[in-house]
């Protein structure tokens, strides 16, 4: 720890030098009140206790004055050293202040640790709340498959697989490859709708041999229902296990 002594009296400087050495305090002797750095203890001899005395408190944890008379109450100080004093008396006073500083430093460190822990906990709770909110939002959106809800890395999540299973086992569906005629439009309308749908996507028509990849997770189950009804259970199982299924579409049968 550092101790600044502001005095012009040689005997006081000598006593402080002996006591500080015994207490392992780094002694700095000055003959003016110009303090710019933070000091653990500042002791001011009575001839320097003036209107600027109180301003020294901002630079130190413990401020003291050496006085032969009572110090006015408007002078801010942590302890008093009464003149004349013996080295043993000074040693006792400074030892006490050193312990006070150590205790204050320990309390400050514990408070900082508590603040850090509270901040970490608050950040964790906030992050957890955001994750829960995101999960709820994703669970309510049927057009995507969330990472949290994937089942063994499948392409479709558990909810989607149940919906597909319901479609495949629907009593209203006569078999795996037939649907009600009312569900289908006239062939001309189908072609027109298909062309309109294609116009909304950008395809590189120059790469004629490169297949177009359709990601089922980008669509709602209602959009996929007519398409999935054309597959049997083995195809659905392959999709749910993460495999790719190649499908060739055409408007007429090639002879």
Q: What features would you describe in this structure?
A:
It contains 6 helices and 5 strands; from the N terminus they run βαββββααααα. A 5-stranded parallel β-sheet has the order 2-1-3-4-5, covered by helices on one side. Helix 1 links the parallel strand 1 and strand 2.
Q: Can I get a quick summary?
A:
By secondary structure, the chain is α/β, with parallel strands linked by helices. About 40% of the residues lie in helices and about 10% in strands.
Number of strands: 5
**Terminal Cα span:** 98 Å
Order of helices and strands: EHEEEEHHHHH
| Rg on CA atoms, Å | 42 Å
What is the structural class?
A: alpha/beta
User: What count of helical segments does DSSP give?
Assistant: 6
Give the fraction of residues assigned to helices: 40-55%
Spatial arrangement of strands, main beta sheet: 2-1-3-4-5
Taken as a percent bin, the fraction of beta residues is: 5-15%
Shape: rod-shaped
Q: List low-pLDDT spans.
A: 149-154, 173-177
Q: Please tell me the overall pLDDT.
A: 75
For the largest beta-sheet, the strand count, sense and barrel status come to: 5 strands, parallel
Key attributes of the depicted protein:
alpha/beta; 42% helix
Secondary structure layout:
Layout: E1 2-6, H1 10-22, E2 26-30, E3 39-45, E4 60-67, E5 79-82, H2 87-139, H3 158-168, H4 187-199, H5 221-228, H6 233-240
Parallel strand pairs: 1-2, 1-3, 3-4, 4-5
Helix pairs in contact: 1-2
């Amino acid at each position: 720890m550092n101790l600044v002594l502001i005095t012009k009296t040689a005997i006081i400087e000598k006593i402080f030098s002996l006591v500080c050495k015994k207490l392992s305090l780094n002694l700095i002797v000055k003959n003016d009140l110009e303090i710019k750095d933070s000091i653990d203890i500042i002791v001011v001899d009575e001839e320097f206790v003036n209107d600027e005395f109180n301003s020294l408190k901002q630079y130190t944890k413990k401020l003291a004055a050496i006085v032969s008379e009572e110090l006015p109450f408007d002078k801010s100080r942590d302890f008093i050293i009464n003149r004349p004093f013996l080295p043993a008396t000074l040693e006792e006073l400074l030892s006490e202040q050193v312990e006070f500083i150590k205790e204050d430093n320990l309390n400050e460190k514990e408070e900082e640790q508590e603040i850090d822990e509270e901040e970490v906990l608050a950040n964790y709770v906030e992050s957890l709340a955001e994750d829960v909110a995101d999960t709820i939002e994703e669970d309510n959106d049927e057009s995507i498959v969330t990472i949290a809800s994937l089942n063994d890395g499948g392409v479709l999540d558990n909810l989607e697989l149940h919906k597909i299973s319901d479609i495949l086992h629907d009593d209203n569906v006569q078999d795996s490859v037939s649907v009600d005629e009312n569900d289908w439009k006239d062939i001309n309308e189908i072609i027109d709708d298909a062309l309109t749908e294609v116009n909304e996507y950008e395809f590189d028509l120059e790469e004629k041999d490169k297949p177009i990849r359709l990601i089922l997770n980008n669509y709602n189950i209602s959009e996929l229902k007519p398409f999935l009804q054309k597959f049997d259970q083995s195809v659905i199982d392959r999709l749910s296990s993460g495999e790719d299924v190649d499908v060739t579409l055409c408007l007429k049968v090639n002879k």
